[in-house]
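Data availability excerpt. The first of two example chains:
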Amino acid sequence: MRWAITGKLIETKIVLITLNFSFKASKYNTEDLVDIILGDTKETKDFHKYRRLSQNDKSFTQSYERSLAIIQIQISKKHRELKQKDTCDNKVKQQIRYAECLMKHWGVYFWIWCK
């Protein structure tokens, strides 16, 4: 059985639909998903700070783009690490789905393989 995920950008919100024998729709923004996957780190705090500041002051755009690139690399790394684990833990599977949704949203290439 394959799990299906769809992601759509609606006013900076990513809508995730996960199939767990019933349809559940959960709305998270990009920052929420980054926090779920990476936790509370210095890089995630910088990402939140520069994202907020760049919305009001365009001089922070370069800092925001730099912090976004760091976050994208960390999400990609975490996705690869989680995919290499042989686990049936639902939390791990959910983090993998969230990471894939973020990478699709950002247009970051990732490899999908089946075990």
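And the second chain:
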Amino acid sequence: MAFEALRVGFYSAPRVSAHAPPSAAASVRGGSVRAAGGALSVVSEQLLLGGGAGEDLREDEQLRRINGLFLGEWTRFVDHERRQRQRIEREVQVLMDTMAELKVGTISQVERCSAHLSA
């Protein structure tokens, strides 16, 4: 099973400080930091731009851990539900097969009784 995690929304980048590298200042557009390869993480943004002290980084790290925990729990929940659904589908298939056998058996008994009564 595979899934893709998509982050919706954006983080505002802190103001560019005087000691930030020139490439960082040039790469800030529209409140988010973009690199040649795509968006940088919040931690990378804060380190690159010189903003955000350790507390912001700890909060970001905590949010990432919570996000990882949430994704792990969600994956386990989905796997459990998928296994339950497959088990129920197998049970329903057994019931459908049994019902088909009962139908064939009932039809044959009715035909035998009908033949016996007409003879």
